[in-house]
Automatic annotation (TrEMBL):
PANTHER family: HELICASE MJ1565-RELATED
Domain of life of the organism encoding this protein: Bacteria
Keywords linked to the UniProt accession: ATP-binding, DNA-binding, Helicase, Hydrolase, Isomerase, Nucleotide-binding
Species assigned in the record: Epilithonimonas zeae
MF annotations from Gene Ontology: ATP binding; DNA binding; helicase activity; hydrolase activity
Ranges for domain Helicase HerA-like C-terminal: 455-561
Protein name (record): ATP-binding protein
Domain Helicase HerA central intervals: 150-338
InterPro entries tied to this protein: HerA-like (IPR008571), HerA_C (IPR033186), HerA_central (IPR002789), P-loop_NTPase (IPR027417)
Length: 587
């Protein structure tokens, strides 16, 4: 960065009015506003959107021209002939963006502790000077010049001014890329992915439509993509019990308790199968497990068609297994054979105890079974649906190489830079997409809490994030808790080295708790009032003058705002070398 930003060849005017929100500049001559070339650099003069530097007494100031006008009496004289022959004296309005030390321009003061005085000189800001600021935004003093950077694009009004940003500033406090359809979000995501790959860092992208499939061909950089329902699956046992409840939507009065009891019974059956012939469990025959109660007394648990039969049988041996293995049975994992779940629910439709013997379960309860019919049908519909079998691997093993969690673990442990998880072939029924994305987020959250990303930070990109965040799954009976894995990542994982990058058309659909944790916003064209308000509320550096540009941004243009950026920057995103498959079909 040049040590002296105040080059008198760049002079354009004087400050003539100072207000808390902005200052006004007087141009002694309209000639000073015209574009000119200085040492091979084309300077645009006084144009709206251009950056200027102001020379104060103790501090220098960087500002942006917001508007230009002529004094009233000169407007009356304005004509085509007079403009080329007569000198006019325009005035302008400048937003002060930041202040810096006069004799050490690289040192930025956070906040505006002072303002320029009337009579301060205003200069056009050179490209080299402002480029240095962009590169060092968000970088701590001891690390200036060392963090990896990403060439994001160039200033909208000046193609020669490259906006090269520190990767730490972009992702260190999470990032959101927002804008209406066709605004350029996909190109921005591709540009950032390309930068991460070039810097040899790691990223995972959840791709709902397959538009980032062109990245798969980067040999030695990209891992084999995990395309769910096609060549990869997410084993149902990696879902939590809460995820299963969301998937199956039981009503609260009868169905939810019966579903929980059936899951508990199938977990007990899995324990019986895995602990045969120890001191506690003996398999007497194909359908009978003998459980040691006290001393040599043994009581039986009966099994039929891979389900535990309770009606009329003793409660005590079942409770003995439950109490002995309570930690495993009450865990949130779904470690049981889900193919037997529907039939097990029918076995759970019994009276709590036998009228004649309180130590036994009661007989068949027809009323409970009638209430559970819709739940059993949903379970059987899910399990027997070939599309969902491809996604959740109901008939596959958890240890298979193409299981999603195994694929993620392999990627995290290798030296490759990008893993694409594609949901393009996943059905929208049963809220499967939302549950899968939340389960992936929950798994990565667990790894982050176990310090997995401290030495190798990971950026998790979520395209079309409004599909997955802030989701409540409802039907006429049931309302679940929020699918909140990404909310938890946003709130607690910065210090663990797991960072979010959300891309969405509708920032209003992102939970306020998540939005408030986002430190960097790359905002493309936004028209909807609620979307603009969501960004304004979440981003401290956004003001009304800045947000006024959002509805008129062109394709690929964006406003960069954030905690680590002391000023909002309007830029044109550089076209990525690897382009997404997001072109609009032609009629």
């Amino acid at each position: 960065m040049s040590n002296n930003p105040f080059n008198h060849s760049h002079f354009i005017g004087y400050i003539n009015q100072v207000l808390p929100q902005y200052v006004k500049v007087h141009f002694p001559s309209s000639v000073l506003m015209k574009s000119f070339t200085f040492y091979g650099e084309e300077l645009k003069g006084g144009l709206v959107g251009n950056y200027v530097v102001i020379e104060g007494e103790k501090y220098g100031f960087l500002g942006k021209i917001l508007e230009l006008s002529l004094p009233e009496k000169e407007r009356l004289e304005l004509s085509e002939k007079s403009f080329s022959t007569k000198d006019f004296h325009p005035t302008g309005k400048i937003e002060i963006l930041l202040s810096f030390e006069l004799f050490n321009p690289t040192k930025i003061d956070k906040g505006l502790n002072s303002l320029p005085m009337i009579g301060s000189k205003v200069f056009i800001c050179s490209s080299e000077f402002i480029k240095g600021y962009f590169k060092n935004f968000g970088v701590k003093d001891g690390y200036i010049g060392t963090p990896p950077t990403i060439n994001v694009g160039h200033l909208t009004y000046d193609k020669s001014t490259v906006v090269e940003l520190s990767q730490q500033a972009l992702f260190g406090r999470h990032c959101a890329i927002v804008g209406t359809t066709g605004g350029g979000k996909s190109y921005t995501v591709s540009r950032l992915l390309q930068g991460i790959i070039e810097n040899k860092n790691k990223a995972i992208i959840i791709d709902p439509t397959g538009e980032y499939s062109n990245f798969d061909s980067l040999e030695g950089k990209s891992s084999t993509p995990l395309i769910l329902s096609k060549d990869s699956f997410f084993h149902y046992s990696n879902l939590t019990v809460a995820d299963l409840f969301v998937l199956l939507k039981p009503s609260g009065q009868v169905q939810a308790p019966k579903l929980m009891e059936a899951i508990k019974s199938l977990k007990v059956l899995r324990i019986l199968e895995n602990n045969i012939d120890n001191d506690l469990i003996i398999k007497s025959d194909e359908n009978t497990y003998s459980i040691k109660i006290k001393d040599q007394v043994r009581e039986n648990i009966y099994v039929k068609d891979k389900n535990i039969v309770k009606a009329g049988n003793s409660i005590k041996p079942f409770n003995r297994i439950y109490n002995t293995f309570i930690k495993e049975i009450e865990s949130i994992s779904s470690n049981f054979d889900i193919r037997n779940l529907g039939l097990q629910i029918t076995k759970e439709c019994i009276y709590d105890i036998d009228r004649n013997d309180s130590k036994k379960w009661g007989g068949h309860n027809e009323g409970h079974l009638n209430n559970c019919v819709s739940l059993i049908l949903r379970i059987n519909n899910l399990i027997n649906n070939p599309e969902f079998n491809k996604v959740f691997g109901f008939s596959k093993l958890k240890s298979d190489d193409n299981e999603l969690i195994n694929g993620i673990n392999t990627f995290i442990d290798n030296e490759l830079n990008l893993l694409r998880i594609s949901f393009e072939d996943v059905s929208f029924d049963f809220q499967a997409r939302e549950i899968l994305a939340n389960a992936v987020g929950k798994f990565l959250l667990g790894l982050a809490r176990n310090q997995k990303f401290k030495k190798k930070p990971l950026v998790l990109f979520i395209d079309e994030a409004h599909q997955y965040l802030n989701k409540k799954v409802k039907d006429e009976y049931f309302e679940s808790t929020d699918l909140s894995a990404f909310d938890s990542i946003a709130k607690e994982c910065r210090k663990y080295g797991l960072f979010l990058c959300l891309a969405t058309q509708m920032p209003r659909d992102i939970p306020n708790g998540t939005l408030s944790q986002i430190g960097t916003f790359i905002t493309h064209r936004l028209i909807n009032y609620q979307d603009k308000e969501a960004i304004a509320n979440a981003c401290s550096s956004a003001n009304k003058d800045t947000l006024a540009f959002l509805p008129v941004l062109g394709s690929g243009e964006a406003l960069l705002m954030g905690v680590d950026f002391p000023m909002a920057v309007m830029l044109k995103i550089e076209s990525p070398q690897i382009k997404p498959n997001s072109e609009t079909p032609l009629f």
